[in-house]
């Protein structure tokens, strides 16, 4: 049975729409490195119960302003501990020198620095009702350009 004139147009329209969706899906597929780094949120890196704190996020920037990642100060009310996660957005999947640090006024200090693919994390350090300062940094694969961020002054003093 032959198609009516409008039925042929509908078949062609459906084919064009389907092809467009397939093409858009392929174009929207992120790279494997991006997809892997996107899976690392500061909540996931620091662990269950840790939340982002007020004034606890900074971009890790080069001296020219390029962003290589972000550093997050996290806190768990239940444990009274802090954690810092430095998560790369450039050179993800490539081992580059990446670090994170936290210092608690009148308390301890924790730092983690190695050649990581996606992030560095300080571990958990006691900080309830104490002021903290934090930092994160990463470098390009040659180790020549560093991007850093954080807060050099004391803050988040109220537990």
Explain how this protein is built.
- By secondary structure, this protein is α+β, with helices and mostly antiparallel strands.
- It is 23% helix and 43% strand.
- It has three helices and nine strands; from the N terminus they run H-H-H-E-E-E-E-E-E-E-E-E.
- It has helices spanning 5-28, 32-38, 42-46; strands at 51-61, 67-76, 81-88, 96-104, 109-116, 119-121, 125-126, 132-139, 146-155.
- A hairpin with a 5-residue loop joins strand 1 (51-61) and strand 2.
- The protein is globular and about 40 Å long.
- The termini are far apart.
- The model is unreliable at 1-37 (pLDDT under 50).
- This is N-acetylmuramoyl-L-alanine amidase.
- Residues 1-35 form the signal peptide.
- Keywords: Signal.
- It comes from Nonomuraea maheshkhaliensis.
Fold topology:
Blueprint: H1 5-28, H2 32-38, H3 42-46, E1 51-61, E2 67-76, E3 81-88, E4 96-104, E5 109-116, E6 119-121, E7 125-126, E8 132-139, E9 146-155
Antiparallel strand pairs: 1-2, 2-3, 3-6, 3-7, 4-5, 4-8, 8-9
Mean pLDDT: 82
Largest sheet: 5 strands, antiparallel
- Rg, Cα atoms, Å: 23 Å
Strand count:
9
Shape call = globular
Helix content bin: 10-25%
How many distinct helices?
3
Low-confidence spans:
1-37
Structural class: alpha+beta
Distance N terminus to C terminus? 77 Å
Q: What amount of the residues lies in strands?
A: 35-45%
Order of helices and strands: HHHEEEEEEEEE
Signal peptide: 1-35
Organism: Nonomuraea maheshkhaliensis
Keywords: Signal
Protein name: N-acetylmuramoyl-L-alanine amidase
């Amino acid at each position: 049975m032959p198609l009516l004139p409008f039925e042929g147009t509908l078949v062609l329209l459906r084919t064009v729409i389907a092809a467009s969706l397939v093409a858009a899906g392929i174009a929207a597929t992120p790279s494997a490195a991006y997809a892997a780094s996107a899976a690392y949120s500061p909540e996931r890196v620091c662990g269950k119960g840790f939340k982002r704190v007020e004034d606890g996020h900074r971009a890790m920037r080069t001296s020219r302003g390029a962003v290589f990642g972000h550093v997050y100060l996290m806190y768990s009310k239940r444990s009274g501990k802090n954690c810092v996660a430095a998560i790369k957005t450039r050179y993800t999947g490539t081992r580059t020198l990446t670090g994170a640090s936290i210092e608690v006024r009148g308390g301890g200090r924790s730092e983690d620095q190695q050649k990581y693919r996606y992030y560095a994390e300080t571990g958990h350090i006691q900080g309830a009702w104490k002021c903290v300062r934090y930092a994160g940094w990463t470098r390009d694969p040659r180790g020549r350009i560093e991007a850093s961020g954080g807060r050099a002054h004391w803050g988040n003093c109220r537990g």
